[in-house]
Amino acid sequence: MDLGITIKNIRKQKKQTQTEFALACGITQTYLSQIESNQREPNLSTLKLISIELNVPLPILFFLSLDKEDVEENKREAFEIIDPSIKSLVNEFFAV
């Protein structure tokens, strides 16, 4: 799961700097930087604030963060087939 990179990508698509986004979330820019580089895992309440500011529901944020290593080995082939289509649909729906 690559939650930090997903947060960073969505933030950038919304054309917000780390400083602007961190301020909106009530966290420091340093902490946001650590989250986005996967150096720190935010707690659930911080993740909720981030998802609200990104305008992406938290379960969707988690889904967008999935990669094939998060899926059971016997299901990876199916995941790799459907993942791009589903993520594209989700991105379109949430204007990510």
Instruction: Give me the secondary-structure category.
Output: mainly alpha
Q: Multimeric state of these chains?
A: single chain
CATH topology: 434 Repressor (Amino-terminal Domain)
Separation, N- and C-terminal Cα atoms:
18 Å
Low-confidence stretches: none
In sequence order, what are the helices and strands, one letter per element? HHHHHH
CATH-wise, what's the superfamily?
Answer: lambda repressor-like DNA-binding domains
Helix content: 55-70%
Name of the level-1 CATH class = Mainly Alpha
Average predicted local confidence, pLDDT: 93
Describe this structure in words.
Residues 7-61 form the HTH cro/C1-type domain. With 96 residues, the protein is mostly helical. The chain contains six helices and no strands. Helix 1 packs across helix 5 (58-65) and helix 2 crosses helix 3 (29-36). The model has no long low-confidence stretch (mean pLDDT 93).
Q: In short, what is this structure?
A:
By secondary structure, this protein is mainly α. 67% of the residues lie in helices and 0% in strands.
Write the layout of secondary structure elements.
Blueprint: H1 3-13, H2 18-25, H3 29-36, H4 44-54, H5 58-65, H6 76-93
Helix pairs in contact: 1-5, 2-3
Give me some keywords for this one.
single chain; 96 residues; mainly alpha; 434 Repressor (Amino-terminal Domain); 67% helix; globular
